[in-house]
Every structure is written in C-alpha cells, then in structure tokens.
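Co-fold these.
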Amino acid sequence: MPDAQASPIHKPVSTTIEINLTGVILAMQGDHPVIYAAARDAQSSPGLPSGPFDPLRHRTLELGLRNFAAEQAKLTLGYVEQLYTFGDRGRHAAERALAEEGSLVPHVVSIGYLALTRVEAGAAARAQFPGLYSFFPWEDWRKGPPKLIDQSIRPLLDIWAADHAAEAASADRRALSRRERVALLFGGDNRPFDEEKVLERYELLYEAGLVDEALRDGREAAKAWPERPALGRSMQADHRRILATALGRIRAKLKYRPVIFEIMPPTFTLTDLQHKVEGISGHHLHKQNFRRLVESGGLVEATGEQTNTGGRPAALFRFRREVLTERPAPGLRLGRSG
Amino acid sequence: MPDAQASPIHKPVSTTIEINLTGVILAMQGDHPVIYAAARDAQSSPGLPSGPFDPLRHRTLELGLRNFAAEQAKLTLGYVEQLYTFGDRGRHAAERALAEEGSLVPHVVSIGYLALTRVEAGAAARAQFPGLYSFFPWEDWRKGPPKLIDQSIRPLLDIWAADHAAEAASADRRALSRRERVALLFGGDNRPFDEEKVLERYELLYEAGLVDEALRDGREAAKAWPERPALGRSMQADHRRILATALGRIRAKLKYRPVIFEIMPPTFTLTDLQHKVEGISGHHLHKQNFRRLVESGGLVEATGEQTNTGGRPAALFRFRREVLTERPAPGLRLGRSG
DNA sequence: GTAATAGTGTCTTTCAGACAGTATGAC
DNA sequence: GTCATACTGTCTGAAAGACACTATTAC
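Predicted complex below.
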C-alpha cells in the first residue's frame, strides 16, 4: 500500500467504482412482515430492488433508490431511510477475480435503504412479497424460542466454538471468544435474546459457514458442514446481509420513533397494532402494558368508530401526529414477553 | 446489475463516480472534546482527514479511512464506525457546474466515519485538535442554556419561521411547520433540549441560511441576513455536516454502548469519567445518579488504587469488560441535569 | 349458553431523580 | 481550622411488568 505521507494529493483512482442502491421494502400482510423480492426464475434466489446510482439520472441517492423501486417493484415509496454502505472487496466473486487481474470491471459499493409501505394484499402480488422470516427463521420468537435454534443452530455453533476454545484462552482479551459471542447473540442459559442484534447473528452464522451469501467470496465456505441444515432462504449478492441490517434497524427504531404508523392503515384497532409490532419485533408483548404504553404515551387517539370482526367490536384508533412535537423520542418503549 | 423483468438493462453510468472517505476523529483534552482538523493555511477553513477510496489500495472502505487517518493525522485508529453516506449533487459547487455541462468531472459521494481515540495532550499537536464546540457552540449546555441560543439563534429563527406562518396553516398536515421544528429542536417553553438531534439542528440552521457550508450549492445562501452573527466555525466541503452527524451519533450511542471507554485512559476516577461524558453529551449530570448507574450497572470496577490531586484522594476504576457478555445494551442510561 | 375477541383495575418491583449529608486529603 | 475534592444514605414518584377480571358481539 503506497503511502503518500500526509500529502493531500492523491493519485487518480485506477479502477472504476460503481455505486449500487439496494432497497428493503417492508410491508405487513396481516400479522406477518413481508418484503418485496423478485427472483429471475424459479431456480434462482430472490433479490431486492436495486440498480446503479447514476448522478445524471438521479438527483440524490435516495431519489435513485425510489426510482428503482418504482421501476422494479412498481411501488411509490413513502418512508425511506439509509441503512449502511457495504464496500467489501469481493462483493461479487466473479468481478473480483477479474479486477485483480487489472481489468476495468467496476468495483461495486452498495448502499442499503429501508422503506416502509402499505401494500394491499393483492393475491397476484403475493408471490413477490415473501415472508421476512423465511430468510431468518431464527428471528421469529412469537411462538416462543424457535426450535431451529435449539435443534440446529446452537449445537452446530457449539462445535464451531469448541474448535477455538484453546486459542480463546490465550488470545487477545479485548475480543470475545466464540463461545461468548454465541451465548450473547443467541441467548439461552438465562441470557436474554436481544432481538435487535439481527445483523450480528447473521454475521456469526456466516462466519461459521452456516448460511450462504450468494456469490460472496468463499473464505469460510470451505469449512464444510456435512449435515448442514437449511437455515433460511438465501438471496442474490449481499442482499440478505442488507435485509438483516434492515430488520435490526427497524426493531431498534420502533422503540424511539413512531415508524410503525408508516405501515399501519389510517385507522386500526389496538390489537391489530400490537400484532403488527409483534410481527416486526419478533416476540410477544404484554397486552395490557402495550395498550397503556400506546394510549398514555399519546401515540394514538380513538376515532370513536368501531369494527366488528367476530367477537366484541374493537375501537378504532388513529396515529396522533401531535406526539411528534410533544415528546423528544416518541416510540413504543417495548418490554418483553406477554 | 441486470435485473429481472421490470427494468432489466441499465445503461452504463455516464459520469465517473468518486467515493470520498471522511473521518471524524474524536478525543478528549481534559474535559473538552476535540477533533482532528487541519487547515491548509491560516485563511482557509479546517478540514477532516479524508481522501478518495481506491479499491486497489484499500481492501475495505474502513481500511481506506484508517489509511487516510494515518497519513494525515498520524494516528492509528482504534474504534471506528461508519456514520452515513452523503451523496447530494452539488456537494462541490464547482464540480457541479462542470458536470452539468457534461464533462467528466467525477461526482463525489462521501462516506462519513467516526473514530474515537486517546491523544496525549502534546502542546504541539493542540493546534490540530480544535474544540468540537467551536463548530457547534449551541450544543454545549454544560454551563446552562448557551446565551447564543436566546440572544441570536432563536430570534433569527423566529423571523425565519414567521415568514412561513401563513403557508404552514394551509400546508400538508404531515409536515411540521417551521415554528414547530424550531421549538422541537431548540427547546424552550418547557420543551426539553434533545441533545441527540445535533444533525437536525444543524440542518435547520443551514436551511435558514444561518450557517455556511463551504462550497455547497447556494440554494438558500441568497437569503441574506444583514446582521448575521457568526454561528460557529465553518469547515471544508460538507465536513461540518459530517461532524454534526458524528456528534449526534456518539451522544445517542453513549446511552447503550460503553463507547466512552474507548476514550478513557486504562484507569480513571469516576469524576473524570463523569466530566468526559458530560463533555460529549453536552450537559451536566447528577453526580450521585451517575455513580450509581456506573457502579451498579457493572460498567466499572475499582482497581484499589487512588489518586491524589488536591482534595480527598479519588479511587481509581477500570472498565469491566465482562459487562459486554452480561447485559444486552450496557451503556450509561444518562438522565438530565445535575 | 358458548366461543371469540376486546378491554379494564390494581399490585409489586425497579429505577431515575433529587434531597442532604459525611470523609479524607493539602495547607 | 479551612478549603477542596471525593463519596454515601435514603426518600419519592413514575413506570415497567405481571396478576386476574369484566364486556360485547356472533352463533
């Protein structure tokens, strides 16, 4: 790596760079979170809407993303937020090989975005909106701890951690051992499962060679697991990693910003609201506490109308925009269980 | 990246794109936060360490940034985190003019980073480490509400908000009015000052034409304030915006991650810890509550040693690494005042 | 009535915020 | 002693978390 010591003059960059914009478009179908993802054909993995940023076509990065969403998913996005910029070399294995031989294949840096939208459950569109948890089955704790974790993930990760137990003892004290990381991220032993650490869990599984990232460099892929189970569906390129980032982000954000209402219809029942929040945060909530939080927190107000859907009619509510000006961080300071 | 049906083929991007990496390197000098920023000469505004990402030289984006920090600030960074990717067209006004005539001047997208480091207060280096609050004097509430806000900022923003009072009433109900935004971001009238909203405040001031962003497009610059006061020092390019992002991020992160210890020496007194946290978060803390939080939260442990610096000797503490594995979000759940 | 869904009342534990005090050193 | 800094004990009120109970509809 040539060091131009403190000189502010840099040689022109010798490979072309391409900026890829990729969007996670999240919606709810009933109580289940879904994302827009299309597969080229029945064989290939689904991919998120994406495309190259072109400063001549797109006035800003975000407008570029909105443009791709409109073209590919046929959706006009409302809420959009930038997540993270992924730039690891080897993002596309094929490109990498070429690039290292000095060709001019562009290096790709991708910027991930999260968009929230309301989608009418058109039956035709359903195939294009797979369930979010089909990609991360270990993240759905609404029916209690997923069996997948106890039956597959933890046993395999224990083997993976045992491999390094010896080194860990002598190693750098600043870094956590593999065993500690597994315990921290997947809970168990009275340790809580922190639903926000979606990306960290995904990266641990990737590091252990238990999930595939299509076309990524095969650093760890050689570590063969003869009886490796299918841990969720994979996606094109690094889209599954971007999706993990999105899920972690929105789970965190629910707690201090009223983003959930971007996904709710204009009026809704509190039970519906609770179920959708549970769908995203991935665990059950205590009903009474949820209602208290949401009502006494001034997040919603009754419309006066009611639904009738089988049992006792439910009161309809709407989002109270005024909270935005009343409280610094209006969110659903959600606790656990219920 | 060719895609399924919707918009399969994208034309090759016709302008070259350059990715700029820019780092905010934050340290403490005593109780005061400082950043690395160098000016070319006495006349020009200071700038953060930065440079173009070159995939042939830098294995990852972050390594590229570390490289520029080493070259320009002569610092080997420890903790580094990505902040945000800024891509507005017109990031460099001069470039923009050329690019719109179809020339091949690159469009610049910049990725901001935050790094935390310990710096020995070498007197020689001091000039290169200006105080953080010299760029955002309205963010330092340690001595109470800054007079600048009451004497300059709020009166000017009130004028700016009054300009739009009429439109606001009729306008889109989803958007907050100027008056509401001012009240929300700068507090007053029994509204709290939310110290995390650093970027939002900066952007409001920028929108109102009260702060300069060197070389940015002059959309709002025409709005002349005849008696405009100096609201903090400006920086090169969009560096001040990146700095605002960094300050907002670390103020938020302090509360749920033990990042402060990246800046602390290996052992420290609780008073010193409190003062440094106050320096970053920008307001005073209640002493007893702070100590209770930090000790009962298991964030620190006594070393058994003591200092003697004038008064009663203070017990020395060190960071307890074990919290990382004990609690999901170990931070200083700081309250207000003191 | 029974099943199904909606909604409430209140207790306990935890913890943030604030009070006012005591302890140990240099001089 | 006085000044300066370090440290502690305890009250209060707001919520988070959990308990069990009542209400209104369709059939």
